[in-house]
Amino acid sequence: MNLLKNKKRKIIIAGLLVIVFAGGFLIGQNLFAEDNDIEKGIEPGQLAPDFTLMNLDGEEVSLSDYRDKYVLINFWTTWCPNCLAELPHLEDLQNNYPDDVRVLAVNFGENQATINEFMADMEFEDFMVLLDEDQAVGREYLVRGVPTNMFIDRDGTVIDRIVGYMEYEDLIAIFELN
C-alpha cells in the first residue's frame, strides 16, 4: 500500500512539474515575443519622439531644443551600479564636446528630492539631469532596463539604442567624434 502511495505521489509531483515548466515556457515565449516587439519600437533611422521634462532647477527642457546637436539620452537611476559607473563618462562626453553633443541624463522614476540629494554628493559641473518621475518618457522610449542610451543625430533621428553600461570610447564612437 505504501508503495502505491509513493508511486501516486511521484506521478502527481511529476505532473505538477510538467505543468509548471510548460507554463513557464509559454510565459517565457510570450515575454520574448514582447521583447522582440520592444526592440522594434524605436529603430535607427526613425525620428526620435520629442518630449519635455523638468530639470533640477524646475526649468522645462525639450529634446527639440537641441536639434542642432547630437543628443545622448541616458535613462538611469541612483540605485543602478552600472548607471553610476557610466555617469562620469557622460559628463566627460558633455565637457569634451560642448559644441557638438548634449547629454540629457533622464532619471527614470525617482523623485526630485532623491535626485537632489544624490547630485549634491556628486561633483558634476555641467550635467543636465531631467526628471521622468512617472516614467512616461521612458515608456515612450520603451525603456526596460537601465542604463539605456539613445543616440540622436543633429536632425533628431535615432542613430542607435544601447541597453547596458558603456565605456567612454564606445559613447564617442557611435557619434563618430574621435
Automatic annotation (TrEMBL):
Transmembrane helix in keyword set: yes
Thioredoxin domain ranges (all copies): 42-178
Coiled-coil regions listed: none
Molecular function in Gene Ontology: antioxidant activity; oxidoreductase activity
Ranges that cross the membrane: 12-32
Superkingdom of source: Bacteria
Protein name in UniProt: TlpA family protein disulfide reductase
Keywords noted in UniProt: Membrane, Transmembrane, Transmembrane helix
Originating organism: Halonatronomonas betaini
PROSITE patterns documented for this protein: THIOREDOXIN_2 (PS51352)
